[in-house]
Amino acid sequence: MTVTTSDRPIEAQSRAKRLKALTNAVHEGVDRSIMSASSFASIERYKRFLAIQYLFHRDVAALYADPRLQAAFPDLVQRCRLPLVIADMADLGVSAPEGTAPAFVAGEPHDMGSALGWLYVAEGSNMGAAVLRKEAQKLGLTDDVGARHLAPAPEGPAPHWRAFTAALDAVALSEDEEKRAKEGALEAFARVQAHVDARLD
């Protein structure tokens, strides 16, 4: 059976929409895990959530410094949220957690397909951040203290996301690279889920 979204076969959708359809179930699972752990019930719970954010954004930080990816996404450097997460951790006295080695290492060659899948997940989390930002504000956190990484882009989350997906859809990939983009997106969500499972209960 052919999966369809918006009344069009998934194969005819843009790359961003294909990745959304492919990852919808695992994305919802990650969201449920984070919210069911009462991550915004207290500052202490939020600190654990912040540690997960640190680990995932550390996983992908090297991609934002990749010259080939920067050529495809001109504003990629500015999109990296790891420095904001680190600043939020400093605000709240959260030490960098120990964890597995980052998924990507700076200076090493990155497969374009896989990298695009991981970037899709990292950048997509900006859209969900609007809801989390409101929860953080209930704890007294702001865009300047403790919740910088949840703040929207100056132009707004929707235009910020549309600019990313337009660039994502414009990258030419081989059939094998396209497959690895799908695999990369699923791997990225699995990585987030692993961080959640290890640090939230």
Automatic annotation (TrEMBL):
Pfam families: Heme_oxygenase. Coiled coil: none annotated. It comes from the Bacteria. This is Heme oxygenase. Signal peptide: none annotated. One of its GO terms (molecular function) is heme oxygenase (decyclizing) activity. GO terms for biological process: heme oxidation. Gene3D superfamilies: Heme oxygenase-like (1.20.910.10). InterPro entries: Haem_Oase-like, Haem_Oase-like_multi-hlx.
